[in-house]
Structure formats: C-alpha cells, structure tokens
Amino acid sequence: MKLRFSIAAGMVVVLIVAANLTVATALFAHNAEIFVGMAPTLIALQAVAFRLLRRRSNPAFWLGFLAFGSLAMASFAWGMTLPRELVAVAYPGQSPRLVNVSKASSLWLSYGSSAGDVLERWLGSSRQLVDPEGPAGVLVRSLVWSAPQLLFALAGGLCAMGLARLGVSRLGMPGRSPHGAAA
Questions:
Q1: Chain centroid to CA 137
Q2: Global pTM?
Q3: Where does the chain cross the membrane (predicted)?
C-alpha cells in the first residue's frame, strides 16, 4: 500500500492542530473539566469529518456519528458550563442555595457522581497512588466523561447506517435498496 501525502492535506492538518491548541488553551483557562471531558470526543469528531471530506464512499454511518457526537458533546458542554447557580430571586424570604439550572447539568453531574463511585470501588487502595490532578487522574477523568459521548455518537452512526440501508424513501428522500441499486 502506497502512502500518498499532499501538501494541501498537510496544511489542513497543521491548521487543525493549531486551532485545537488555541481552543484547548482557552477552554483549559476557562474550565479545565470541560476541556478534559470534550477533548477525546472533539478529536474523534474531527477525524470523522476529515475522513468524510477525503473519502466519499458510504457516508451514512459517519454523518450519523458526527451529528450525534456533536449533540452529545454540546450537552456535556452545556451541562458543565452552567452546572449550578446561586439562586436568590427564585425563593424570596429564604436563604440563597445552589440548584441545578438545566436538565443537562443534573444528568452529567449525576453520571459523574455514579462513575466516581464505581471508580472508587474498582481502584480501592490504589486510589491513593493516583493524583487526581496528575496525568493518570486527568486521563481517567477524560475517559469517564467522553465514554457516554462516544457511545451516543456510535449509536447515532448505527441508526443512520440502518436508515440508509433500509432506504428512507418513506420520508420522501431517496435511499438504497438492499441489493445496492438506487431506489
């Protein structure tokens, strides 16, 4: 297999890496946990988008993966950007308290709490060896936060591929028949 490399593709890769580093720096300065949770999903979505642009064969799975992965990543960003807010106006006469302001926030925070409980049981005494802010702790948190996002993207890709194979002509859009010919 001969590896072909073009200057244009190399320039695109350099541009993407530069944009990633710029966004990573800004996200890390704003909220490190959002950066840690979005980085693997964002890299996967960029790889899928690059693949879609380079190869034209059967894009249904990859388009579904890209669409659902983007939605999952957006819900994570939304849930972690506004996780809690000091509400003083909603309860006049009572002391202010922290409440969840969105369903995405409560979903992601409860998932993080449950995943943390499971990891504590698995790691047990070795948890003392792993610094939560060190490289191993950041890697574990990154995998924990990105796993449901990537699974949702995979489900979206499989749904889109199934719809493409069935043919979505019932919805007024042309699809493929099971034998490969256009419907």
A1: 19
A2: 0.72
A3: 7-28, 34-53, 60-80, 150-168
